[in-house]
Amino acid sequence: MSSKTERKDILDFKSLFDVKKLQEVSNLETFSSEYPDYTSFLLENARLMDDALITQTYLVIENSSKKIVAYFSILPGTVSIDKALKEQFPEVTFPAYADKLGTLHIHHLAGDADFCDEYRHIIRFIIDYLRTLIVFKLNEHLQIGFISLDADINTDERIDKKYEKAGFKQVGMSMELPLMLLPVYDTE
């Protein structure tokens, strides 16, 4: 699929879906990931972590059916600015006065098994949503330069390739999982 076609698909998502905070939705039982750990996180732990202000969880809801298509939990993070990071991201302008840069870390991201084939570009939609949130809201008071995540290759051995296709680069390891970064601002 061409990049132009994928871009149109992403724009179509915005007319098909609504993104709501977890606290705004009561019926979570309709969600079922093909990976049980991701389903149980949403049903059993996400509200607890949101209430403790550790994460903020958002649900992607299909407008026509009102069903949860995907969810993602985010939390703040940082990345150390070192020579290796600068070499991996030569297109990024790093502040000369800082040794760390803020990240918006994706703690969990999962799609509902019933919608995975139909909405296979949901990762790209969520990444675009997060970039918009960072650029137009969070960066008014912060300097978030990257979206970060730990690619859960123990659950899905191909997930790092899916994230690479969305523009992420592996920069190291975090708790035995690939740590991946994506610059917030497009450099193309």
What features would you describe in this structure?
With 188 residues, the protein is α+β, with helices and mostly antiparallel strands. The chain has one domain (3-183): Gcn5-related N-acetyltransferase (GNAT) (Aminopeptidase). It is built from 5 helices and 7 strands; from the N terminus they run H-E-H-E-E-H-E-H-E-H-E-E. It has a 7-stranded mixed β-sheet, with helices on both faces. Helix 1 crosses helix 4 (122-136). The chain is globular and about 50 Å long.
What are the SSEs and their pairings?
Elements: H1 3-16, E1 17-21, H2 36-51, E2 56-62, E3 68-80, H3 83-88, E4 100-111, H4 122-136, E5 144-150, H5 159-165, E6 169-174, E7 177-183
Parallel strand pairs: 4-5
Antiparallel strand pairs: 1-2, 2-3, 3-4, 5-7, 6-7
Helix pairs in contact: 1-4
In short:
The chain is of the alpha+beta class.
Q: How many DSSP helices? A: 5
Number of E strands: 7
CATH superfamily: Gcn5-related N-acetyltransferase (GNAT)
Give, in order, the helices and strands. HEHEEHEHEHEE
Kindly provide the radius of gyration, computed on alpha-carbon positions and rounded to a whole number of angstroms: 16 Å
Name the shape in a single word. globular
The averaged pLDDT comes out at: 85
Q: Order of strands side by side in the largest beta sheet?
A: 1-2-3-4-5-7-6
Helix fraction, binned, reads 25-40%
Overall SS class: alpha+beta
N-end to C-end Cα span: 19 Å
CATH class: Alpha Beta
Name the descriptors:
alpha+beta; Aminopeptidase; 31% helix; 30% strand; globular
